[in-house]
Amino acid sequence: MKTILHVFVLLAFSSSFIFADNFTEIREISLKKDEQKKILVKYADKEKLFNFRWTLYKNGGLVIFRSYDKIVAQNVLYLRERNQSFRVELKSRGADFYNVPYMLVRFKEFKEASKEAVFEILLSDDKKQIKLEDLKKG
User: How many CA atoms does the CB half-sphere of 109 hold within 13 Å?
Assistant: First the structure.
């Protein structure tokens, strides 16, 4: 019985490592209302622009406007477990891509005093083909 329990505990803890995403890059940024963040996504001979901003924080929900490769979307993010982040696939699914590189933008906290939203930007890129470059304001 003890052996079965040990095996079960070992499998339970090791599964979190097996199924965990390996992020190749993690960034943290703070944005004020309507402040736009622009990131240039580079791979192969292509450059695509990702930008996002937040416009409203009400009842714990943060309204986000974002665009990547001329595709525009809107999300409402919350600090609780669900709807805390959004995912952007950075390359189209090709014949040799089972794990498409993606960027995960996670709403981490809202600073009431400074009215700033804090985000984590996580890059998942198993083949290390993607480069992210922050674009300067202005």
Answer: 7
